[in-house]
Each structure stands twice: as C-alpha cells, then as structure tokens.
C-alpha cells in the first residue's frame, strides 16, 4: 500500500462554469460596458415582445376593445371624454401606443430574425459550394452576387416583394405578406454571407485536415458541412448579428413605404408611417415612441455586433 502522507494534494480541476466565466470571450464582454448595456436593452425589448399579451394593458388589434373616444389622448393625461390615462398616449383609433409598440415589436423581430436566418443559410451554402467546387460554379455564383451588390438592398427587396406578391392570390395576400416580406429581405441580404464564407472557405480547403478528409473518402458535402463550416463560423455569426439590425431597419422601411407588413399585423415601420401623418398636427407621440423603440433596438443590436466582431478577432486579442 502506497503511503500518501505528507504529499501535497493535486489542485482541484476548475468547474466548467468557472472556465467559461474566465474565458477570453466572457472576460471581453464583462469589461465592455457598451456591450452589457446593449445586451440589456435587447433582452428587455425581446422579452417585452415575447410576453406582449401579458404585459400590454390592451390588445390594440382587437376591435371589440377599442374606443374611438380615446383617440389622440396625450401621454400620461386623462382623456377628455372617458378620463382614461394611457402611459404613452393613444393613436387616431384610440389604441394604446404602448400596447401597439409591444405587438409591433413582435412582427419586426420575427421578420428580422427569420430573414437573417434564411439569408445566412442560403449565403453559407452558396459560399461553401463556390469555394469548394470552384470553376464555372464559383464564377456564376459570385457574378450574380456582384451584380446584386450594384443595386441598393432595399430596392432589391421591394422588387422581390412586388413580384412575389403579384403571384400570390388576392385573397391570401394579407396572410402571406409577412412570409413574402421575409423572403424578400433574405434574398436581398444573402450576398454578404456568401462572399465572406467563400473567402474563408478558400483558405480552409487547402488545410491539412481537409486533405486528410479527402484521402479517407469523405464526400464533398460532408467535408464542407462537418469540417470547413465549423472553422468559419466566427465571421458568419458577426455578420448575422449586424445583418439583424439591417433586416429590422429594412422591414421598417418597407412597411413605412406601405409595401411591408399589412395593416392587420402592423410592425414598428407601419406604426411610424401612421404616426408620420399626425406629426405636424400636434400628436407627436404617435410617431415618437415607435421611432425611439426602433432606434434603440437597431442601435443595441449594432453595438453588440461591433463588440462580437472585436471579441472574435484574434488579431485584437
């Protein structure tokens, strides 16, 4: 039996949670006040949108709950007829502006997140295929990307939205408008993902581990998805974060122009368009509060994307 008396015990292995807490990524976040504030703002807005039915004082899109006598009530002041008080005031139809913002956030966040996800999937696949196969396949994909980059993304989205809506039966246009909007924004935004993925994949495909995978008989799709893709995810995540803010703004712009979310499912852009019509008649709050919410959301997501880009850049460590 071995005598262990007098020996110094081995140091305890740090827990997984402690390792994560002390990692470079989390350390960078903990020492970035801007990123912390931005994340808090994003979480508040996202949770408010998710739990809108529980938080909102009224359902602004239920006609049975609306009272036109409450229309144009200033923020925090009692209505002249009903004496009801609304935190952020009401719009022309007597809808509580605070409630419309919460429900509008749901549409804006859903459209933005779904459009970025679709654009990311399409761009990553096309970028990987272009880099791995090369030749005429790469030429076609990248020339299409170059041509699309010559047009403003919002104009491409408007064109795609108009074409897709034209093929949609009239009786289903309002129901399909959100999905058509998602596809339009995604097809106008896939180029950024494809170009970055192609550049990163061109570097990775000549590495030893890819050559080894080829030698043991791995198929092309397996090499691209299981070997190359995991090593180029960092720039993809950064672009996805920044693209989320751009997608939300694109949705708001399209809705503001009247070619986005339908009136029955208004987003922040639709609310801003409605409020713009009453700005110069004195009802400033109908435009102001949705616009501030959109600004806070887009700015916070952008700041998170900037921090993520710096945190995942090995040259800045």
TrEMBL record:
<keyword id="KW-1003">Cell membrane</keyword>
<dbReference type="InterPro" id="IPR035906">
    <property type="entry name" value="MetI-like_sf"/>
</dbReference>
<dbReference type="InterPro" id="IPR025966">
    <property type="entry name" value="OppC_N"/>
</dbReference>
<dbReference type="Pfam" id="PF12911">
    <property type="entry name" value="OppC_N"/>
</dbReference>
<feature type="transmembrane region" description="Helical">
    <location>
        <begin position="228"/>
        <end position="250"/>
    </location>
</feature>
<dbReference type="InterPro" id="IPR000515">
    <property type="entry name" value="MetI-like"/>
</dbReference>
<feature type="transmembrane region" description="Helical">
    <location>
        <begin position="284"/>
        <end position="308"/>
    </location>
</feature>
<feature type="transmembrane region" description="Helical">
    <location>
        <begin position="145"/>
        <end position="164"/>
    </location>
</feature>
<dbReference type="GO" id="GO:0055085">
    <property type="term" value="P:transmembrane transport"/>
</dbReference>
<dbReference type="GO" id="GO:0005886">
    <property type="term" value="C:plasma membrane"/>
</dbReference>
<dbReference type="InterPro" id="IPR050366">
    <property type="entry name" value="BP-dependent_transpt_permease"/>
</dbReference>
<feature type="domain" description="ABC transmembrane type-1">
    <location>
        <begin position="105"/>
        <end position="305"/>
    </location>
</feature>
<feature type="transmembrane region" description="Helical">
    <location>
        <begin position="34"/>
        <end position="56"/>
    </location>
</feature>
<keyword id="KW-1133">Transmembrane helix</keyword>
<keyword id="KW-0472">Membrane</keyword>
<feature type="transmembrane region" description="Helical">
    <location>
        <begin position="107"/>
        <end position="133"/>
    </location>
</feature>
<keyword id="KW-0812">Transmembrane</keyword>
<feature type="transmembrane region" description="Helical">
    <location>
        <begin position="176"/>
        <end position="197"/>
    </location>
</feature>
<keyword id="KW-0813">Transport</keyword>
<comment type="similarity">
    <text>Belongs to the binding-protein-dependent transport system permease family.</text>
</comment>
<protein>
    <submittedName>
        <fullName>Peptide/nickel transport system permease protein</fullName>
    </submittedName>
</protein>
<dbReference type="Pfam" id="PF00528">
    <property type="entry name" value="BPD_transp_1"/>
</dbReference>
